[in-house]
Amino acid sequence: MNPQIIVLTALTGAVLSWLSGYIYSRLRDILAGMTSVILVLMISLSHGYSCSFSIGTFMGFPLVMQMNSLSWIFALTISAVTLCAVIFSYSYMHGKENNGLYYFMLLLVNTAMLGIVFSGDFLTLFIFWEIMSWATFLLISLKKGKALEAGMKYIIMSVFGSMAMLGGILYIYSLHHTLVFSKLSAFAGTYQPGSTAAILILFFIGFGIKHAVIPFHSWLPPAHSEAVSPFSSILSGILIKMGTYGFVVIIYIVIGLKTFLLFAGFRYILHVLAAMTIIVPTFIALRQDDAKRLLAWSTVAQAGYIMAGIVFSTGLSVLGGLFHFVNHAAFKALLFLAVGAVEYRTNGVRDLNRLGGLIKRMPLTFSAVLIGVCGLIGVPLFNGFVSKWMLYKSLIMGGSPLLAFAALIGTWGTVLYSYKLIHNMFLGQLPREYKDVEKAPLSMRIPMVLLALPVVLFGIMPGIVLRWLNSVIVSLGFKSIKITLWGIASSTGSVHMIYIAAAVLGGVIVALLLLSLGKKPIRIAQEDTYAAGAAIPEDKYNFTVDFYSPISKTIAPFCKDIIDTFYTKTAAGIVKVCSMIRKVYTGYVGTYVMYIIFFLAALVIVQLAWSF
Amino acid sequence: MELLNMHPLIVIVLTPIAALLAGLFFMGVTRKFTARIHWRYGPPITQPLIDIMRMFSQRPVSHGTMFHGGVILSLAGALAVLLFIPFGNIPPLSGSGGLLVILYLLLVAPLGLALSSGEGANPNASIGISRKLMLSLGYEVPLLLILLTLMTRYGTLSIYDIVHAQQETQWALVTVPLFISGIAYILILPAVLGIRPFEVVQAAQEISSGPLVEYSGPYLGLVHLEHGLTLVINIALFVNLFMGGAQNILLFFVKMIIILLAGLSINAVFPRLRTDQAVSWLWRWPALLALTGLITVMIWR
What's the rounded mean pLDDT across residues A432-436? Predict the structure, then answer.
């Protein structure tokens, strides 16, 4: 399928569903859902398709759209996550105002993201990039109030990133007089160190801001937590990964692997940034009390893993990084949707200190969070395990044990905040006010099941995705890695999920056999607990607030978001200076006449001084 | 030596049974040895086995599916790890993934227990789990550094290769750059095994045995078996990584007993630290030593 047809379909669907909203609101929802389903089908049918089309010119620059293995896998992930978010929105957004704008912007963001990955030149990419940024701004600030603040923060940083990117694009054009990827890749490896550094830094800022790499992360936590939950899942699952796509394009297609490998110093800085992006947000996450904010910080950290894989530039690490992108899209979108379902049923409660014990009330949502969390931690047999294993292995064998340590300890931090998330929402005591909470509606359960499937499937049979990704890394200039359906079979070390699955399954069978020897249990209520003879008062001893208080104090000094404070203070300073300048405009005509007279007088004085 | 020629399937069946029995034996030794240090007579060494048999004859209570499934998952996780660790001359049954897989599979058992005990609304269980997770974050910092040191030094991810390399030369514990990491490992071993001064999780006097408070009958039996297995696994890891494994299963067992008795001697005479004290101690001295070890190895190459 031609990429321009896919993008056009997405755009037409967006406009049609928007217009139909004025006729009948249900028609709009149905059209939005149908557009997403058609897109998923169109993209999955174009598997293995590779092409490049010139679709016209803009101010004399050719506009090119292309499709290859890299853009295909990104496009599939984008359309799949968007589909789930659209279905989820049916009940979540039902009865809220501005629904027409919401669905239109959601589909427009989808169109723009597809446009980005199908772009064959930098100008097309930049145009879609800007559409995506502005549509995202409107979606983040949909709820007004705090959300508007978050949106402002996002768009200011985004504009800054776009400017850096535009600078980079102009610089590349001044070097080669073309912006088309296929022509630029012919120049890969011919860059001088100075120009390589300039290109890398400019694009690193441009893409790094979307990717939320430290020090450009500070838009992400407020934006993810204040946006409506289905859109948070898109933001976290795929939108920030447009930065990943950008990194891959700029490093491996424009600059070229060989030139990049020569840049030891710059790569070292990127490694340090990746390590910081993994560790610091992980520890900040485990001190959060807002479920979505916790997940937002977790997103920053997981994006750090992806970046570490991409910039470490060995075949296995890039493969692992790209695989982690796919996995993260699945489990993080799932987690945001599940938190959104709880938020929906409890009338907007996201505060982890106020929830608890919902496991019996919302069993499917609990299972969804459990699967999502297992993927996030990387418990064996869930998808995150394989991609993280590949990252660790390439980091350790590539001689960077300290970076590997950052990645590993990040995972153990992940265990802590993941358990806090699942415990404080679903385990422990059920507060009395949630006694009658109903299970999530069907239109919320379907997308959760859809997203939970790949988390488990890719965990046991990672070969499905790894085969596709293997052709991507070959096209980027790496050696092919031996992939089987169950994992990796390289000579320097292999992982076969089938053995691990068999071992765990064997363990389960033994445990079941042992348990069957004993007497059958009596089922008792959640609250019927042992308290050494003294009854635990209902609703009083819910252990959730400050779940990790003993270490909270120890890590608090290291968890200050200095960079965000710096940005906020700078912004406040600028506002202060500007408001001082604003005092010039008093609103009295007399003052303005006085300014004019002063100005003329100054001119006369300058004139006189000049003539001397 | 006839063990070497056994069919892999027999080994797969025998290893878990032997490990479960060894775990029970270790728990028996723990009680007896501690009693003797305290100048008590102590229960017979078979007491844990008798206890398990009693528990299986009692009727338990259950809070629901997660409560039930979590316990099973917990024991299954511990049993699965066994297959990836070499015991003396019995090689690991699968080289798949090496140390990283062991590290990750070790997560399954505590995670299963955490999810299971959370379904009952007992605050003591929640407190115990939060302590367990914090303590493990405490000792994982030095432990991961130590493991990375070994993997960098021997240039492999496979535990079998690490054991093999030591058998050809000498124990990692007495090799020049690695002994620093070895000392760090010894310092954190009580925390890994969950014994005093790091017995914060199952603090019986404070939080009614923490995560175990809701279990009864066969459930409690399974949790005890899992506890024994965890003892075996963690001691076996140390013996493999720093004491060169062993040429045969008997010698391996002797080495494990020595480590256990050394740990118990500490356990019997020390009081318990608070969680925050334990974590800050673990993040200070052992972590510093382990980091020194890693950097030394990185420069050494």
Answer: 83
The per-residue pLDDT for range B120-160, each reduced to its tens digit, is 778 888 888 888 888 888 898 999 999 989 888 888 888 88
A500/B79 Cβ within 8 A: no
> Which residues are CB-neighbours of B229 under 8 A, at least 6 positions away?
B19, B20, B23, B75, B78, B79, B82, B109
Token pair in block for residue A291: 């479920």
CB contact, 8 Å: B152 with chain A?
A: yes
User: CB of B272 within 8 A of CB of B200?
Assistant: yes
pLDDT band of residue B2 (cuts 50, 70, 90) is very low
Whole-angstrom distance, CA of residue A427 vs CA of residue A542: 10
Reading the block at residue A539, the tokens are: 């609703």
Do the beta carbons of residue A92 and residue A229 sit within 8 Å?
A: yes
Q: For B60, which residue in chain A has the nearest alpha carbon? A: A521
| Nearest-angstrom CA–CA distance, A252 and A473 | 9
B27 in contact with A, Cβ within 8 Å: no
The whole model's pTM is what?
A: 0.90
Test the A interface: residue of B53, B57, B119 with most A CBs within 10 Å? B119
* Interface contacts (A, B; CB < 8 Å): 252
Residues A358 and A343 sit within 8 Å (Cβ to Cβ): no
Residue type, B90: I
Spatial distance between the Cα atoms of A455 and A462, rounded to a whole number of angstroms:
10
The verdict on B219 touching A (C-beta cutoff 8 Å) is: yes
Mean pLDDT over A46-64 rounds to 84
- Separation of alpha carbons A187 and A201, rounded Å: 19
CB distance A503–B94 less than 8 Å? yes
Contacts of residue A360 in chain B, CB cutoff 8 Å?
64
A427 inside 8 A of chain B by CB: yes
Residue A458: CB atoms within 10 A of its CB come to 26
pLDDT at A509 over 60: yes
Mean pLDDT of all residues belonging to chain A: 87
- Using the Cβ of B243 and the Cβ atoms of chain A, whether some distance falls under 8 Å is answered with no
Q: Provide the 3-class DSSP secondary structure of residue A523.
A: strand
ipTM field:
0.89
Query: Are B209 and B198 in contact, with CB atoms under 8 Å apart?
Result: no
* Residue spans of beta strands (DSSP E) within chain B: 61-62
- The distance of A354 to chain B (nearest Cα, Å) reads 15
Give B-chain residues touching A550 at CB under 8 angstroms.
131, 134, 274-276, 279
Encoded tokens for A78: 């984008």
Question: According to the 3-state scheme, what is the secondary structure of A173-224?
Answer: HHHHCCCEHHHHHHHCCCCCHHHHHHHHHHHHHHHHHHHCCCCCCCCHHHHH
Q: Which of residues 74-103 of B touch A (CB under 8 A)?
A: 75-80, 83-84, 93-98, 100-101, 103
Least Cα distance to B198 among B288, B283, B120, B132 occurs for B132
